[in-house]
Design a protein that fits this description.
Number of helices: 13
CATH superfamily of the largest domain: P-loop containing nucleotide triphosphate hydrolases
Bound molecules: guanosine-5'-triphosphate, magnesium ion
CATH architecture of the largest domain: 3-Layer(aba) Sandwich
Strand order of the largest sheet: 5-4-6-3-7-8-9-10
CATH topology of the largest domain: Rossmann fold
Structural class: alpha/beta
Distance between the termini: 40 Å
Helix content: 40-55%
Oligomer: single chain
Shape: elongated
Number of domains: 2
CATH class of the largest domain: Alpha Beta
């Protein structure tokens, strides 16, 4: 049996709930890209539907659009690629048609990355390893994911494998307490791989569905961190040769194009199978999501839209592009 964790009803209602929050967070980006001549609308007041922009897309418009895409963290190459394809509309295109075509092009890039994380319950436990640099949002995401799957009726346990920072285990225990999620931990300074190994063994004995392993984001050096993570993966395989079943790279959307380099590094060290992009409720401009999709084509499993347990949303490509680009309609 497998369980699909996307909720189609929610993802087709982009204006509501968390997607509404993403829309508000990306309001500035949207206004920069798609509505540059409009006064910013206060987010608390419902927008009146904006009439389609019937003005012709002259050269100034095209140039401005490219600059605005780059400013929104889409990246230079991708911005120019997107516009090259959009320009096929021809000389006489109206601005609203250009934006519609841009929406389509963005969706072409993002749609293949909409691939919800499916827990294969034939694995007991299904092992998810969360990795990422310090401060990216790993521990918070592990807490949110535990709750996400618990709400779907699954038994979840957490492995506190960030043994480097003394406060990390406590942070995780506090998060886990909220929903009575068991945490398998050792003392700070313990071997991270051994903690995950123990957690898997515990979960096997208790027929637990999912083990979520939180890992360190920083050791003394970057190469030590990568070596530790590779060791964690090797030792996990001793407990279950098919694990880890998902290596989730957690990325802070606010770091812009630096995210590309982080994916490359973690790919090389541990083989990333999915992304979680956090802090999209904050000052992040959102374009990096496109840039990552275009560059790596990795599944984008979830977006982080806040610090609370429910602030996690399975990625939905069309709702995301709408929040980034479309006027309220
Ligand atoms: N606004 C917002 N804040 C977030 C989100 N995800 C995480 N945070 C905050 O970001 C900060 C760092 O999050 P952590 O989960 O501790 O990050 P980490 O990757 O575990 O960091 P290290 O353990 O130091 O490697 C915390 O203050 C979180 O509350 C999000 O989606 N939105
Ligand atoms: Mg942490």
């Amino acid at each position: 049996m497998s369980v699909k964790n996307n909720d189609p009803q929610q993802s087709t209602e982009p204006q509501k709930g968390l997607w509404g929050r993403l829309r508000i967070a990306l309001q500035r980006t949207r206004q920069e890209i798609a509505e540059p001549d409009q006064e910013p609308a206060p987010s608390s007041v419902p927008l009146t539907p904006a009439p389609p922009d019937e003005r012709p897309a002259d050269e100034d418009f095209w140039q401005g659009l490219e600059t605005r895409l780059i400013r929104a963290d889409v990246g230079v190459d991708l911005a120019s690629h997107l516009l090259q394809r959009t320009r096929r509309l021809g000389q006489n295109a109206k601005r609203h048609a250009v934006l519609q075509a841009l929406h389509k092009e963005m969706l072409r890039i993002l749609a293949p990355c909409e691939s919800p994380l499916v827990i294969d319950t034939s694995h007991k436990p299904f092992v998810v390893l969360a990795v990422g640099v310090n401060g990216a949002g790993k521990t918070t995401t592990v807490g949110k994911l535990a709750w996400f799957w618990q709400q779907k009726g699954m038994q979840v346990a957490i492995a506190a494998a960030d043994t480097f920072r003394a406060a990390a285990i406590q942070q995780l225990q506090l998060l886990a307490q909220r929903h009575n999620t068991p945490v398998i931990a050792q003392q700070s300074g313990a071997d991270a791989a051994a903690v995950v190994f123990d957690a898997i063994k515990w979960a096997q004995a208790h027929k637990t569905d999912v083990v979520l392993a939180d890992t360190a984001g920083r050791l003394a050096t970057q190469s030590q961190l990568m070596a530790e993570l590779s060791k964690v993966v090797r030792v996990i395989r001793k407990a279950d040769a098919t694990a880890p079943h998902e290596v989730l790279l957690v990325l802070d959307a606010g770091i812009g194009q630096n995210a590309i380099q982080q994916v490359e590094q973690f790919q090389q060290a541990v083989g990333v199978t999915g992304l979680v992009i956090t802090k999209l409720d904050g000052t992040a401009k959102g374009g990096v999501v496109l840039s990552l999709a275009n560059r790596f084509g990795l599944p984008i499993r979830f977006l982080g839209l806040g610090e609370q347990d429910d602030d996690l949303r399975p990625f939905a490509a069309d709702a995301f592009v709408s929040a980034l680009l479309d006027r309220e309609s």
